[in-house]
Amino acid sequence: AGKYSTLGAMPTERTFAMIKPDGVRRGLTAEILRRIELKGYRTVGLKLYQIPRETAESHYGEHSAKPFFGELVDFITSGPVVAIALEGENAIAGWRSMMGATNPANAAPGTIRGDFATSVGENVTHGSDSPESAQRELALFFAEGELLK
Ligand code: GDP
Ligand code: MG
């Protein structure tokens, strides 16, 4: 029995999720929020947001040397996004698992990218990839007063 004793002990985490401009334009907002609610994550921050260019460059700073960086910043600032702060057990990896692989060609059916996207550049959602990224991205997109305690 001891070997199973940690199964229920996943950490409560906060993560940054985002519906990208393609998802908003295509009317996928309600479907994606529905999936989040059905999964059971708590939404502790939520807003429609036009990302300033400098914020986009900072958010995607790790990709600044990549050939697609300019295109990525142009795209993410091309229209409003829905910025979401999620809370729940194992929320960081769990939300990434709901999104599916970065390239929709490799994303399993049943995942958001697997079900709704065909292009790596326009893959509908974002999710933080680690506790450090989650903390950095939540602070970049939300003022303290915009997040529930
Ligand atoms: P993510 O964490 O799964 O979103 O993936 P990454 O952090 O590796 O990349 C950030 C975003 O850059 C991805 O979600 C894609 O939308 C975009 N991206 C990644 N690779 C490419 C590429 O080769 N071309 C273009 N246009 N966009 C890309
Ligand atoms: Mg990433």
Model description:
It is found in: Cytoplasm. Keywords: ATP-binding, Cytoplasm, Kinase, Magnesium, Metal-binding, Nucleotide metabolism, Nucleotide-binding, Phosphoprotein, Transferase. This is Nucleoside diphosphate kinase. Belongs to the NDK family. The active site is at 126 (pros-phosphohistidine intermediate). The protein has 149 residues and is α+β, with helices and mostly antiparallel strands. The chain has a single domain, classed as Alpha-Beta Plaits, CATH 3.30.70. 38% of the residues lie in helices and 19% in strands. It contains seven helices and four strands. The protein has helices spanning 21-25, 29-39, 53-59, 69-76, 91-99, 112-116, 131-141, and strands at 12-19, 42-49, 81-89, 125-127. It has a four-stranded antiparallel sheet with strand order 2-3-1-4, with helices on both faces. The radius of gyration is 16 Å and the shape is globular. The relative contact order is 0.24. The structure holds guanosine-5'-diphosphate and magnesium ion.
Number of domains: 1
The CATH class assignment is Alpha Beta
Estimate what percentage of residues fall within beta strands.
15-25%
Using only C-alpha atoms, the radius of gyration works out to 16 Å
Tally of DSSP helical segments: 7
Q: Quote the average pLDDT.
A: 96
Q: Report the sheet with the most strands, covering strand number, pairing sense and barrel closure.
A: 4 strands, antiparallel
Order of helices and strands: EHHEHHEHHEH
Bound compounds, each kind once, are: guanosine-5'-diphosphate, magnesium ion
Q: In which order are the strands of the major sheet placed?
A: 2-3-1-4
Catalytic activity: a ribonucleoside 5'-diphosphate + ATP = a ribonucleoside 5'-triphosphate + ADP; a 2'-deoxyribonucleoside 5'-diphosphate + ATP = a 2'-deoxyribonucleoside 5'-triphosphate + ADP
GO cellular component, one term: cytoplasm
Pfam families: NDK
Subunit structure: Homotetramer.
